[in-house]
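Late entry, evening session. Most of the bench is empty. Finally got around to the prediction I had been postponing all week. Sequence below, unchanged from the version circulated by S.P.
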Amino acid sequence: KMVMRRHLWLVASVLLVLVVGAGASMDMDDEDDEYRSDTSDQNVHSVYLEHDLTGNDEWTPRGKLTYTGPKLVTAKSKRLVSVRVEQVSLSAAEVAGLQGLMKNNTHYRVRLPSDVSDPDGAPKVMASIPACLLPASKFHEIFRVHVDQYGHIRGLWYQTLATACPSEPAPLADEPVQLVTSVSVDMEGRGARLAVEPKAQSPEEKHEQEAQKPPATFFQKYWMYIIGGVVLLSL
């Protein structure tokens, strides 16, 4: 009888492993489907990064920023979001404009459209640094783009490798200068989430959604009864 009980307990353990494994397999399939949906729904947009070298809101294109990401960013798909900035040079005329900003002790300003899918109609997101910081850092600059779950740019963080301007900045040479630009993307993770109105489903849509679900296996339906019967037989 002891041998029989051991065999029954072994059978119950095997059945439980089968049930758990089947459930885990279904979960992994669901995650794979979501990942495939995210990667197949990628948006790629390029917009101009503009700058003002006069201090009078005379904005001109400086280069392009390219945003790549899903239409709706989730906790799982945020790893698919990326931004790239075109590496550009300042022309001799632009260097002269920067020199003018330094002479007037004003800021060097840059801006981006907040909606990369509508660059002309969207409000702008702006950032600035003291103009003297750019040559003080040997023209090494760092951008961090803050985006929300819809891919809208909510903020632009901008700084250089230098944290303070020299007391007497040296005059800039009248020649083009290469900018060395680093950029990263930061998903909004603090504060209240944006309210999203749930989409109401019709009875036909609910029925179709239920019909698309894979049918449960025999073990998934009756695993409690099977294991309970085995345990009773082993007593």
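Two things to note before I forget:
Strands lie at 42-52, 59-70, 82-85, 89-90, 107-113, 124-130, 140-147, 153-160, 177-178, 180-187.
The first strand starts at residue 42 and ends at 52.
Will write this up properly tomorrow.
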